[in-house]
C-alpha cells in the first residue's frame, strides 16, 4: 500500500449508510469491513435461512429415520411425501 492510508481502518458506524446499518448491527463493524474487503463492489446473493439449512435438515432426517414417516413429517413441519423423497435419496 506504500504511503496510502487505509481509509477502511477509519470507517465507523456513523459513516455507514442507513441502508447498511442493520448488517453492521448484526455482524459488527470489523466483520463488515472484512466483508467489504472480500466482496465490496460486487453483487452478493445471501440465501434465506430455510434454503441454506435444508441440506442439514435432510441429513438429520436421513440419519435419524426409524420408519415413521408421519412422525418425521410432523416434527419437521413437512409433508410425508417430502419425507419419503428425502429418505429415498438415502437409499440410492
From TrEMBL:
<dbReference type="GO" id="GO:0003677">
    <property type="term" value="F:DNA binding"/>
</dbReference>
<dbReference type="InterPro" id="IPR009057">
    <property type="entry name" value="Homeodomain-like_sf"/>
</dbReference>
<dbReference type="Pfam" id="PF08765">
    <property type="entry name" value="Mor"/>
</dbReference>
<keyword id="KW-0238">DNA-binding</keyword>
<dbReference type="InterPro" id="IPR014875">
    <property type="entry name" value="Mor_transcription_activator"/>
</dbReference>
<protein>
    <submittedName>
        <fullName>DNA-binding protein</fullName>
    </submittedName>
</protein>
<feature type="domain" description="Mor transcription activator">
    <location>
        <begin position="21"/>
        <end position="88"/>
    </location>
</feature>
Amino acid at each position: 500500500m506504500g504511503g496510502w492510508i487505509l481509509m477502511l481502518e477509519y470507517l465507523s458506524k456513523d459513516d455507514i449508510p442507513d441502508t447498511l446499518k442493520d448488517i453492521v448491527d448484526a455482524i459488527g463493524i470489523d466483520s463488515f469491513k472484512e466483508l467489504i474487503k472480500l466482496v465490496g463492489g460486487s453483487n452478493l446473493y445471501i440465501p434465506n435461512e430455510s434454503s441454506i439449512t435444508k441440506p442439514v435438515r435432510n441429513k438429520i432426517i436421513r440419519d435419524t429415520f426409524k420408519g415413521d414417516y408421519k412422525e418425521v413429517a410432523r416434527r419437521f413441519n413437512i409433508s410425508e411425501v417430502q419425507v419419503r423423497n428425502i429418505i429415498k435419496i438415502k437409499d440410492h
